[in-house]
Design brief:
This protein is mainly alpha-helical and 170 residues long.
């Protein structure tokens, strides 16, 4: 088995300070992961057991700390739009013509937006991509209900009678 790379001098004190300054559980665990090795000489398996991680994650973070120093312990970037067709700024450039139509009370046809989007992207996309695009930019489908959710036929008939009586009087 290969010998572990030594932790740099003075790192134990820096890590202890970082432990006190950690504001979230995730930040505390990242620092603790390296501190347990530096201060107590625990193996990756022992550190993983102590903080509730898997040994692979412990090794990966410790190796990153040895390469990058304290910057490796500052929030890891996760998630994001890794498979995007267009950036959000480019998407905003595709939508303005349709936005004018929508603000004037016109009906939006997703097929037209889809055609414009495909022209900007340069290939075909599913219709769901366009609906997600619209949701991302705060658009939603608003349509009137066909009927009241709690209809009362008796009240409706009573209203019709009084409305027709009012019309004949006026």
């Amino acid at each position: 088995m290969r010998q572990a790379t030594p932790i740099p001098e003075g790192a134990v004190e820096q890590l202890a300070q970082a432990l006190e300054e950690a504001k979230t559980k995730a930040a505390f665990q990242r620092v603790q992961c390296v501190w347990l090795r530096a201060a107590l000489g625990l193996s990756a398996e022992q550190v993983a057991t102590a903080i509730g991680w898997v040994p692979t994650s412990v090794r990966r973070l410790q190796a990153r700390y040895l390469r990058e120093g304290g910057a490796a312990l500052i929030g890891l970037k996760r998630g994001g739009r890794l498979h995007q067709n267009l950036s959000e700024a480019d998407e905003r450039r595709v939508l303005p013509g349709f936005l004018d139509q929508a603000t004037q009370g016109g009906m939006l046809e997703v097929s037209r937006i889809k055609t414009a989007y495909e022209a900007a992207v340069g290939h075909r996309v599913p219709k769901s991509t366009v609906y997600r695009l619209l949701a991302r930019h705060g658009w939603r489908k608003i349509a009137p209900r066909r009927q009241h959710p709690k209809p009362d036929p008796a009240r409706q008939q009573a209203f019709k009678k009084t409305a027709s009586e009012r019309a004949s009087r006026g």
